[in-house]
Design a protein that fits this description.
The chain is of the alpha/beta class. It has a single domain (4-214), classed as Rossmann fold (3-Layer(aba) Sandwich), CATH 3.40.50.2020. 30% of the residues lie in helices and 33% in strands. The protein has 6 helices and 12 strands. It has helices spanning 14-23, 31-50, 86-95, 145-154, 172-181, 209-214, and strands at 4-7, 55-62, 65-72, 76-82, 100-108, 119-125, 133-137, 140-141, 162-171, 185-193, 195-196, 202-203. The strands form 3 sheets. Strands 1, 4, 5, 6, 7, 8, 9 and 10 form an 8-stranded mixed beta sheet that branches. Strands 2-3 form a two-stranded antiparallel ribbon. α5 links the parallel β9 (162-171) and β10 (185-193). α1 (14-23) runs antiparallel to α2 and α2 packs across α3. It is globular and about 60 Å long.
């Protein structure tokens, strides 16, 4: 299966408005609004992503008869990278309210002299993934290293039917890296920025999503 990339801001929509507020230094000081905008983007992404799922026809009973409709065929597992992804994850959970969840503690290790780094992972918990739809949620897809390492660790819990990676903002190099190393994945991004700086942060990006949502870490 060939990898795919869907960019929500490729078309004009309210997502443009939410991302503009996420990026805006004059608005970022409002943590509640930052978290809520991330959550809204997650809700919209979840709806768009749901169009890629297989469905089964069903009949439901109403007070006045029966109605033909559809229901999702496969269970969903939402995977969030702590801590920055929690608001975006909440948006997905609002839509896929019966989904199972996996949680990963992954972060950038110390930067070396050339500003390179290794991804450190200290925690992972997940349900059985076999035959399920796996959605990996991280607000910023910068280099793609943490997503790749997270997915490789998750394979110990089974082989998912579909793999979707979602980010509020991604970098073009990160998207290319993920597509090269995870050809089975589908990437969904609110926006894609073209470059990374010398410390491998997305430019123009929006800064540190975890700090903006929950306060600066020491």
């Amino acid at each position: 299966m060939a990898p795919s990339l869907t960019i929500l801001t490729a078309q004009s929509s309210v997502v443009q408005h939410y991302i503009a507020q996420l990026r805006n230094v004059d608005v970022q000081g409002d943590r509640m609004r930052f978290r809520r905008n991330m959550e809204r983007i997650g809700e919209i992404m979840a709806y768009e992503l749901s169009k890629a799922f297989p469905y089964d026809p069903v009949q439901v009973t109403t007070p006045l008869g029966t109605a033909a409709t559809q229901r999702m065929r496969h269970p969903i597992v939402l995977t969030t990278v702590l801590r920055a992804a929690l608001p975006l994850y909440n948006g997905f959970l609002n839509v896929f309210e019966e989904a199972e969840s996996a949680f990963i503690g992954a972060y950038r290790g110390p930067h070396q002299a050339d500003h390179s780094f290794e991804v450190e992972m200290q925690y992972i918990t997940a349900p059985d993934l076999n035959g399920k739809i796996l959605i990996l949620i991280d607000p910023m897809l910068a280099t793609g290293k943490s997503i790749l390492k997270s997915y490789q660790a998750l394979l110990a819990y089974g082989r998912p039917l579909q793999v979707h990676i979602v980010a509020a903002i991604a970098s073009r190099p990160g998207v290319q890296y993920v597509m090269e190393h995870l050809p089975e994945c589908h990437i969904w991004a609110g926006a894609v920025d073209e470059t990374l700086n010398h410390k491998f942060y997305i430019v123009p990006g929006l800064g540190d999503a975890g700090d903006l949502a929950f306060g600066e870490k020491k």
